[in-house]
Fold this protein.
Amino acid sequence: MPVEAPGRNYGTVSQMITLHEETETHVAQAVISHHAALRAVHGALGEAERMGVRINVAVVDSAGHLAGFARMPGSFLMSIDMACKKAKSAAGLGIEPELAEQILAHEAARVREGLIPVADFTLIRGGLPIRIDGTLIGAIGVSGGSESQDVACAQAGVAAVIGEKQ
């Protein structure tokens, strides 16, 4: 089924995934396409507009490389970096921050404390992995509203890619 946004047709879901070729020396890695990254950004921005909040939204591929970004005028400048951190954390862990926090609660304090200084790591809500047919293709990070607003915007961004609310 074609994926569409206002004035754009991005093709089918399978066209949203770029799969790197596997060879003897390389591992295949699915990454979000630029078309799907833009859909995620537009989905998150639409939800932010509906809620009346100003956000920054970052989409990264499955390796954590920036694939799409937007900053709404008037959004907090420090939220630029936080949106990127949330996206990179979600891609790096492949799970939602709530689940990561639950898992880490059962680890020794040194494990939790050891993660805090890691660059681009955060458990602040608003970062979600993006999966197609169970395969991680990227992640979205939203910052600028409350945690619950950021999560709602990120969910809208994911839904714009996969076609349904999480």
Q: What stands out?
A: Helices lie at 34-51, 78-93, 97-104, 109-115, 147-162. The longest helix spans residues 34-51. Confidence is low (pLDDT under 50) at residues 1-15. DSSP finds five helices and eight strands in the chain.
